[in-house]
Task: structure prediction
Amino acid sequence: MPFGVIYIAIMPTVDDPTEKTLAELGVNDAQGVAEKFAEVRTRFDRQVAFDADEIRSLMLHEAWLGSDSDPVTSLRNFWVGRKAGVLTLITENWLKKSPPSLKGVVGKQFNELKTHIETKLEEQRKRIEEKTEAAALNREQVDLSLPGVIRPIGSHHLIRQVFQEIEDIFFSIGFSIVEGPEIETPYYNFEALNIPEFHPVRDDMDTFYLELPKAAKTPLLLRTHTSPMQIRTMEKQKPPVRVIVPGKVYRRDNPDATHSFIFHQVEGLAVDTDITFCDFTGTIDYFVKQFFGSSVKTRFRPSYFPFTEPSVEFDVSCIFCGGGGAAAGGGTCSKCKGSGWIELFGAGMVDPAVYGFVKYDARKVSGFAFGMGIDRLAMLKYGIDDIQVFFQNDVRFLKQFP
Ligand code: PHE
Result:
């Protein structure tokens, strides 16, 4: 339907018959009255058939925006508005001003038209309301038959998983888990561990120092091992102490298949009044068997750490060749180079000098400590030959350890 037609129909036009009296329109009998009312009714019926959008687009199209921004209200006001609605105009111009002989007919026609208009407007209101509701419902509808979005569930990094395994084992034999700062002072990282400033062992643990303002009281460094937590733990609590410390450590190493400037350790410390070397080796042996399986053997060799005395290096029988030193396809096992043993980690009985730093009585207490490289343990257990894969975050690697 062309918009212009309705536009004209809605707009009160100059020659709108309801603005004139019946006499001015030349109506003087019942028939003429009925015809005029029929005309108005037809006009109304055409308009009331439109829905809100049609009326709105019509108004926009014709740049006619009534005082009501809502088109349905505009239409309603045009017909039944109290001040200048068509029904009011008919009352004023036709009904009130009709000759007494026609008053009855005009009155009857007027009442019929009024009822008709009010009923239809109410029907239109309902219709539009329902349509709006249905549209809203339609918009909000969820189609349950559409395929869902698959969100892959992540998993813990292998290092995190190995931490967890180790924590579980030590937790089950009475150790608790503590964590400490990755930024340390030289005192905790070295001095209190019996490593004075010019001790040659510091060369092995060259690390990253933080750039600090000149006024800083002490230099700060990224810890080279988790051992500073031995000191921090003993400073805080009296014996007995049984803790493990999982965490990240840093060293100024050049990256290759077995070196990384960032790696992971689990420190262990047990101090009490009567801890012996047997408790020490027994605990380590228990852990290694839990971690690698009960068929492995352990051994220790003398070693050196400034904060343990005696110090040892723990080995495990080669998990690749079973300790025999021979490769499955003949020749020597490349992992243990035919020795049948693989070096695991450093440990020892706590050096009495360390107790001096934490105000423990070295004559009354004894204990042991160990520090294992988690990356190395994970590589051995899961047959990984390059430490770098732990830090590259390649999903193809990570996915193999769900
Ligand atoms: N902190 C030592 C290292 O990182 C390991 C260690 C810990 C040795 C505890 C003995 C006792 O090499």
About this structure: The radius of gyration is 47 Å. The CA atoms of residues 133 and 304 lie 82 Å apart.
